[in-house]
Structure formats: C-alpha cells, structure tokens
Amino acid sequence: xxxxxxxxxxxxxxxxxxxxxxxxxxxxAMMGHGIDQSLGLGSxxxxxxxxxxxxxxxxxxxxxxxxxxDLAGPFIGDCGTFLCKASSPAGKHRADQSPSSxxxxxxxxxxxxxxxxxxxxxxxxxxxLARKALDALPVGQLGDPIITRLRKMLAVPVTKTxxxxxxxxxxxxxxxxxxxxxxxxxxxxLDKGELLSAATSLRELLDHVKALRSEHRPLLxxxx
Amino acid sequence: MRTSAGRARFLDEDANAxxxxxxxxxxxxxxxxxxxxxxxxxxxxxxxxLKPEIAEAINLMDEExxxxxxxxxxxxxxxxxxxxxxxxxxDDGNSIDVEATVFISADWTAGNFxxxxxxxxxxxxxxxxQENFFYFGPSA
Lengths: 224, 140
Fold this sequence. Notes:
The complex is a heterodimer of chains A (224) and B (140). Chain A is mainly α and 224 residues long. Helix content of chain A is 53%, strand content 9%. Chain A has a three-stranded antiparallel sheet. The longest helix of chain A has 22 residues, at 102-123. Chain A starts with 6 loop residues before the first helix and ends with a strand. In chain B, strands 2, 3, 4, 5, 6, 8 and 9 form a seven-stranded mixed sheet that branches. A four-stranded antiparallel sheet of chain B has the order 7-1-11-10, with no helix packed on it. Chain B is built from one helix and eleven strands. Chain B has one helix at 52-57; strands at 6-9, 25-30, 37-41, 48-50, 66-72, 75-88, 92-93, 95-104, 113-114, 123-128, 133-138. In chain B, 4% of the residues lie in helices and 46% in strands. The longest helix of chain B has 6 residues, at 52-57. Chains A and B meet through helix 10, strand 1, helix 11, helix 12 and strand 4 of A and strand 1, helix 1, strand 5, strand 6 and strand 8 of B.
C-alpha cells in the first residue's frame, strides 16, 4: 500500500492528552494502514482500495469499543504489521510483562504502539513525523526508557559557535587530486600541501601524527 | 538576519570518487578526534554518517545507540544512531559545534556524510561555487 503521509492532516488529529482511542486511530492512520487492517477486521481487497485520507477518516470514526477490544491482538507485538525494520529491544520485554492493571497495560500498549510508529516513520525517513508522534504522548509517558532514548536520538540538533579555527586547505585538496591514485585504501595526514604521514588504519595514522608535533593539526583523509 | 558564522574552502571533487562527479566535501571535526576530516555534504541523506574507524577513535562505537537500518546506494546498512558533537570548522570567522545525531555502522565502507536529519536541519549554509567557499552558521 502506498500512502502519502500528510503532516498537517494527520497530526491535527493527534491528541495531546487523554483521548486514547482517537490517538491510536490516528497512529494507525499515520502508518498508512486502515484501522481494520491494523486490528485484523477487514479484507485485504478493501484495504488496498483505500488511500491515506480515507483510511485516516475511517480510523477516526471507528468505534472506540472495537478498537479497545482488538488492540491487544495483531496491533501489539507484530512488527511486520508496521513494516518495521528497526529492532525493538524493549518490545519483547513489554510483551512479556503482565500488566498489574488494565490501565497500566493500556499505558504500556500506548507507549509500545507509539514507539513502533516512530520507528517505522524513521525507516521511511519521516523524521519530523516521528518526532511529532513521540511528542504527542502524554507527559507522564515521556519518561519511559525506550521513549526517552528515541526522543534523545530524534532531538533536533543544537548548534553553538566555536572559536576553533583551521587553515585554508586548498593545497591539501590539490594534493588529494594529484596523489590519490598512489594511496588507495590508505589514511593520509596532510598539511600545507605535503604528506605528513600515511597508514593503513586511522589508529596508526593518529599515532604517527601525535609523534610529529606539527605546527598545524593535519587534515586526515582516507583515500578509498 | 545574520546568515553566516564562518566560512571554509571546500573540496569539490575527490579523485577517488568512483563515479567522478563533482561533490562538496567540507571540513568537520567529530567530537574529540583532534584533527579535521572531510565529509560529503548530502542533504538527501536522512542522517549524517561517520566512518567506523572515526567512530572508534572518538569512542562512539561502544556507546549504546538506537538500532536503525539505512537504505543507501550500497544497499541496506544496519547500524545505530548515536548522539555526538560535530564541529563544522571555519577557515574564517567562527566554527560551529553541532550536537548531532549520526548513523554509525561497522559495515559502512563509504565516506563521512553530513546529512539533513539530526545535523544540517539546524545549520544555515550557502555555497559559493566560484570560490569554493562553504558559508555556514547556526540556524537560530
């Protein structure tokens, strides 16, 4: 099934807090699956006929009772449902857990589903959507270890200026153009257009460079 | 609005590039490596990638990351996403330190890449192809 995810359409439907079933339905729609498919309720022919928008609408209008009854089945623990390629180290652990109460189990499932949705979005290179899926979790669920780790990896980069400076490497670039053929597979250290050292591994090259005590830090490059 | 913190001369061709097409290689210093290396600018790459030897040199291989597979021109590569500091180094002006997410894989045999997700998405940059200057600065 090919479904175009529409950022604004999908995430306007995601709740920030307690509307659990609507959230699940929204997540299922994000995945490009009909909710009937995700919950094992519909026929493949019907699913293939739907596009993303119709799927989302169908998901959002589906009975909350049906959703709740079927959530624990095919939706959980079946990574294939989401075409998920990234491993889910916490997934097995969670599947093995016996929730102490229905509410606890529901929260765990909520986290698990969101985690898998985010992973799947990452596999599709939909990084912004993956961030939004995680951010849509209630604040109380953001501290879960698997969610915390994923949010850390998905955090927007932080930049700050630095006083660090390098010299113009025009001469070193010219060296690479002129001599690369002779150093294939090797790591080279260059400064002012001169080869300071060459080695078969970066570790070896770094050892050589430390011993040189050259005026500038050399440019390191592997000729592949 | 200030666009640039610094600029650096870039390498626009790599004699070892098998396909022989022009590319932009900018100078970076990953974490505490202690020396600049080159990385190919690739806004189409979802994550930045560091060569495994560099990741090992900056002690990034042993850190626990987020398992991830990446579809590349060399096929599907399994690795991990990890958080580290990448400095884009200036010849003039200021360099910038980027707390970035990078993809690390022991199976990666190609070069270093600066990708959009987790790094370039918060960097303002421009290229002067006449002078081979790469201008850059923090986005906010």
